[in-house]
Amino acid sequence: MFYQVSGTPIEEDLRTVLHLPSDKSTSNTQQVQLHDDLTSSGALKIHTMICTSETRPLDACFQDLLANHAPAVVLEPVDFTDDVSTARAVNGWIQSERCEIDDLVTEGDVWSLETLSVMMFNAVSLMTKWRLGFDPRLTEQKEFKFLNKVQKVSMMHGIFKARYCYDLQMRCKVVELPFEHSSNYNLLIILPDDGQCLADVVDAIPEEYLNTMIDCLTEHWVDVQIPRITVAMKTSVEDVLSKQDCTGIFELKDLKVFADGKDQLDRFYQHCWFRMDENGAQLNAPLPESPQVTFTADRPFLYVVRRANDSAVVMIGDYSIYVDPDEQY
């Protein structure tokens, strides 16, 4: 979105890192198409909000851009000096979208000694079921070896015909569990061998790994044990872009958002949500034969949510640190 209203320095950064077209007029069309492709099944929800200083009028071109943006952007003029009311406005908006995210930000996320002008918030929720569900009667409390402690979790258990492989070089097991067919999404879990550090595996994964992994997965009867979890991951996009040397949008006053001058994007938070529980679109049929392999995720693992038709990645993260539910946000 901000690509269209950026000056040359930021434009070049964004185009290089995000692989955007040099013709700005086509980037919005491409973004609309991407949004439609990702959300066409109804399983993936994408919501966007921009907060701007209530004392400054917006630039007319920026207003036109928002009017034609997909997904629709909620614009909220706020008093950035009041961090409590600003956080309340953001969280009230996301709760009204009914996407399972209750609190996208805290007062601390919007508090600043400096004067803020523009903040952006993005919420992505995958709301679907497994294609074949887990039997809740088989769910048991079992130990999970988190990086910071050993803690009992609700471990789901099922035997499925699933695509699986063992990567000898990376020393990890990989299983693909499909969500319900209509969603067009599946979950890839990458589980390092016991004693193998997840961080070392992540650092060693080559850029093309997820694409080449598809050819290695073959169908097996897999005895699967994975924890019942809700993934609620809040990310500062500035931190992500800084690792790619693309922080100009947060540092240079080069965005034509307001009528009275140019500004930078002060902060940008993204919150991703999806749930791994027993619910399935269908009941898992009785096993016709013994499982060929076991997949017991009782230690840190990497998860990847992908589109089934083209393997495009929409979420990626890890389950490795125990967080008390009362302290998650």
TrEMBL record:
Q: Which family does it belong to?
A: Belongs to the serpin family.
Gene Ontology cellular-component annotations: extracellular space
| SUPFAM superfamilies membership | Serpins
To which species is this protein native?
Culex quinquefasciatus (Southern house mosquito)
Name of the protein: Serpin 18
Q: Keywords assigned by UniProt? A: Protease inhibitor, Serine protease inhibitor
Q: Which residues form the Serpin domain?
A: 1-325
Give start-end ranges for the coiled-coil region(s): none
Q: Domain of life here? A: Eukaryota
Q: Which GO terms describe its molecular function?
A: serine-type endopeptidase inhibitor activity
